[in-house]
Structures are given as C-alpha cells and as structure tokens.
Design brief:
alpha+beta, 10 strands, four-stranded antiparallel sheet, DNA-binding, homodimer, elongated, 226 residues, Auxin response factor (chains A, B)
Chain lengths: 226, 226
DNA sequence: TTGTCGGCCGATCGCCGACAA
DNA sequence: TTGTCGGCGATCGGCCGACAA
C-alpha cells in the first residue's frame, strides 16, 4: 500500500517510529493484542520485560478483507544499556517532506449515507478540494469519478450537484461500495488525491465496543449534563 | 451425519469397507488426493508401497460449507502377510439391513430449476413416494414441506400442484435454498424420507472439470458421430 | 410427464426535491 | 451547508399458465 494513502487512512493519531530509530519492545503488551508472537530462543528462564530494538524496516499493509490498514515493523534487537531514568528521546513521526498537492478528507458516515437510498452527501470542502471540478454550466452538473481502494481496485461513482439548495452527492455506484465494504453509520470514508491527481478511497471502521474492554466499566456511568 | 442420509447423498457408486474388515492402504494414492497425510514414525528409510490394515471405525461427515459428504476411516495397521497372488476377498459394502420405509430420490437440476423464476419441477415419482400427500380436493392442492439439510438446518418449501397440464412444483423457499447452497444446473438434489417420515435434502455437486486432470487429455479428441 | 418461455404483479432499489436543523 | 424524509419510477424476483418436447 502506498505510504501516503496508508497514513491518510490510519489518521493523524497513528504515529510510527522512523526507520532506524530506537524503540522499546514490550513482549507482554504485544501478547495482549496479537494472536501470534515471534519465537524466542528457548533456554534461559527469566527474560527482561522489555528490549531495546531498532526499527529496521516498516511495511504498510491493508487487510484484504476489511481494508483496515496496519503496519508491520521489523525489529532488530540491540544490547540493553544500563537503565537510567532520563526521559526517552521523543519518537519522530514519519511525514512525507513534500505533499506535492496531495489532499485527504475523511467523513464519518451518517445513517443516510450508510442506509438510505444509496446516496452519499459529499461535504463541499471535499468536493472542491479533492474531486475533479464539475462543469457548472450543465444542468445539473454531473460526472463519473474513478476512485481506487487501498488494493488498487477501481470503483466508479456518479458525482452530481443538484437539489434545492444545491449540494454534492455520490449516487450510482455508492451503494455497491457500501455493501462490498460492509460499511455502517459511524464508519469513516477517506478520500485521497495524491500528487498525480489520482483518487483513492480508504475506510476507517468505527471502534466497535469490545465485550470485556475497559469501556464496559463506564457504559452505565452517569454522564455530565450538556 | 446420519449414515442413511450420508449414503443417499453419496450415491450408489460410493462403497465403503465394513468396519473391522481388512483393507489395503496405499499412502501414494492418499497423497495424490489429500492435502494432509498422517505422520509416519521417522527412521527406517524404505517403506512398502502399501499396508494391510483393518478399518477400525468409520465416521460420516459433511463439509459445513459445501454440504459435500465424505467419510473418515480410522485404519489399524496389521502385520503384512507373505505376498500371495490369490485374489483379495471382495469388500462387502455397508448397507442398512432394513430400510424401514426410507426412500431417496435424486434429480439433476435443469437450467430452469437452477436459474429461472425461482421454481423447482418435482418429478412425479419423487412427489408421490417422498413428499407428504397433498389434499387433492383443494384447488390448487398446496402445502408447505419442512426439509432438513445434512447439518439439520430446517428449510421450508411451498409445494404446489398446478399448471396445465398439472405438475408438482416447489416455489417459495426454493430460490433461497439454491442461493445458499450455490447450486447450478447440473448439480443434483437428493430428497430423502427416513424411516420416521422425516425429510432431508442433500446435494451432489456436478463434477467440475479440474485443470490438469486426466480429462484434459481427451477434451479436444474427436468424438464418435451420434 | 416436464423443460422452457413470456406475461405479469408486487417488492425493493435507488434517484429526486422539499424542508429543516 | 447538509441530514433526513416521502414520493415515485425503474428494475428485479418470483409465481403463473401456455406450449412443446
């Protein structure tokens, strides 16, 4: 997956270590989230709860089923220095030095976007800054836009500017996309225009509450009045 | 899976050894068809190309995805006797000693059964000998029949006797069954009434030609004139 | 007896402007 | 600016008898 598209899908909260930077690896934390763990050489009984490593390489991937993006970080163990309490150097996040006119826009799907009538309300800023411009002399202004998902699969949508008052909509093609990606209200769609003007669409699933997770403790707690 | 239902689905060509009978096991033949092989104890280099075994137990199964039936035979190795050229004793096939009024009927799906309008033409013999009798005084005679698949899941079909000339049809419920089982023209459906009068439906997939299989050698061979 | 066809009716899909937040 | 609603036209699924193999 193209790193620029990957970052747009993952969102601004997802920070990755720079390649060749130093990171701490906590096997316990890894085990709590992952289903598989690397093989540790057997033998010595006690192992320290964390290792100093170097991020040797980062791979950008997307689940072929759900389109969810994830990164695979190859770790290179380093000798652990004597422990000091000095603060860790901050991890610099990877940012492309030059966007070259690339743009991304994310929208949380409303019930109308996800369920009803098969249409998608395009926020004006998204239509203006990402989609190709419409011929506003036509009535109504309409075009087909060609968008790739993270796997490179091409989807085409009918983009129309209509209604009173006027608004941008995606109509034909949208419901097929929603069904294929199993999107529901609350999920997000990310539209990306890369530096060559190519359009991409990524998705960001709403965090489905997970039974037993910490949020369960607060589900029934009183809320502050608005 | 009930052995009687299993045999009706597998068809008369599928013969199984009787439990506790002697069988020859050919690992090479097994390897050519199966993706996994039993673990042989490592060590000795040469092994004979076949073993004498005893069929210790037979399990009747059905693929939860495709409904295709298969048998799992537990083999018990026996000491191989000195090879003689006397013919093997014929393997007796397992047949229930008493059908107790059980019946089975298989039909190859026509294009109309599989594709069009969601209906299934029930051959008269099948309707007469397997389905519950219709009230022929009604106009048209109609009933709902309740049928289980090999996993025990219940399906209901509308069974009607109508048209000119009159014929038996399954209408409502049939297309859902076709879609769920991914049936296409050429596949077979087996209707089974067991000794208690319960109805079952099994499926037998048409043999899809398999690339590289022996039939490829004959695909383009000249055919005899009819 | 039963496979296929065209007709037809009802359900659903999906595009639309109206309207209000 | 944009979320939701009801209307409505097109499409599709599916039940039907006619007819022929």
């Amino acid at each position: 997956v193209d790193p620029q598209v990957w970052h747009a899908c993952a969102g601004p909260a997802a920070k990755l270590p720079a390649v060749r930077s130093a990171v701490w690896y906590f096997p316990q934390g890894h085990a709590e989230q992952a289903s598989s763990l690397p093989d540790f050489p057997a033998g010595s009984g006690w192992r320290p709860p964390f290792f100093l490593c170097r991020a040797a390489a980062i791979g950008f991937h997307a689940d072929p089923e759900t389109d969810e993006v994830f990164a695979r970080i190859l770790l290179d163990p380093r000798p652990t220095p004597p422990l000091s309490l000095s603060p860790e150097p901050p991890l610099s996040s990877v940012e492309g030095p030059d966007d070259g006119g690339a743009m991304a826009f994310a929208k949380v799907l409303t019930p109308s976007d996800a369920n009803n009538g098969g249409g998608f309300s395009v926020p004006r800023f998204c239509a203006d800054s990402i989609f190709p411009p419409l011929d506003m002399t036509a009535d109504p202004p309409v075009q087909n836009v060609t968008i790739r998902d993270v796997h490179g699969k091409v989807w085409t949508f009918r983009h129309i500017y209509r209604g009173t008052p006027r608004r941008h909509l995606l109509t034909t093609g949208w419901s097929k996309f929603v069904n294929a990606k199993k999107l529901i209200a609350g999920d997000s769609v990310v539209f990306i225009k890369n530096r060559h003007g190519l359009l991409y669409a990524g998705i960001r699933r709403a965090s489905r509450p997970c039974a037993g997770g910490p949020q369960d403790y607060f589900r029934h707690a009183p809320q502050a009045a608005p």
